[in-house]
Design goal:
Largest sheet: 9 strands, antiparallel
Helix content: 10-25%
Shape: globular
Distance between the termini: 20 Å
Strand content: over 45%
Radius of gyration: 18 Å
Number of helices: 4
Order of helices and strands: HEEEEHHEEEEEEHE
Mean pLDDT: 74
């Protein structure tokens, strides 16, 4: 499941609206952005809220091992998980305990909820809701023990773009359709 999360940015393209809240002793701040994510790791982010920044657009590269999905707009959430998963799962499991549960629906999509709890004090704890079909992080909650801050980031809507394909279930093999062999792209079906 974590490998699915780690590889999703290079395999899934999507568009959506992400709502984020930062809560600490000074109050709650809200940021809303629209994201257009391409499989090459490029995101086009348009700020919706706060109103003073509405309409500002920036492009960021997530193909460098950075976060994606609901965790990425705030540079929080899954900090370092992709590189840990891809590089050294043993190190991740040494420092954190992981549990997976049914996560219900987020933005209309079925999810798994993964709890990432530190084994040592003064480290962040995380919960992520992962799209069951694609591995895209649709929601994250990060709790910082120092300062008692909480960052919640969630897709309120998401659409997979037409060229998106989903990860196959374990044991499935790709089936080449006759039109693909003739050079016509029709997508991959999984059996």
């Amino acid at each position: 499941l974590l490998m699915k999360v780690a590889t999703a940015p290079s395999q899934v393209a999507y568009r959506g609206t992400v709502h984020s809240e930062f809560t600490d002793s000074s109050g709650t701040r809200t940021v809303v952005v629209n994201i257009d994510h391409q499989r090459n790791g490029q995101d086009r982010v348009t700020i919706v809220q706060p109103s003073r920044d509405a309409g500002k657009v920036f492009v960021r590269n997530t193909s460098d091992g950075g976060e994606h999905g609901a965790a990425r707009p705030l540079s929080l959430g899954l900090s370092g998980v992709k590189s840990r998963v891809a590089g050294d799962l043993a190190l991740l499991l040494t420092n954190y305990s992981l549990s997976a549960f049914d996560g219900g629906d987020v933005a209309g999509r079925a999810t798994y909820r993964i709890e990432i709890l530190p084994k040592y004090p003064d480290r962040k704890s995380k919960q992520i809701w992962v799209d069951r079909k694609t591995g895209v992080v649709l929601k994250s909650v990060v709790r910082h023990p120092v300062g008692n801050s909480v960052v919640t980031t969630e897709f309120t809507s998401i659409t997979l773009t037409p060229n998106t394909w989903t990860l196959p279930e374990a044991g499935m093999k790709p089936l080449k359709l006759p039109s693909q062999e003739a050079g016509v792209s029709t997508g991959t079906k999984w059996i």
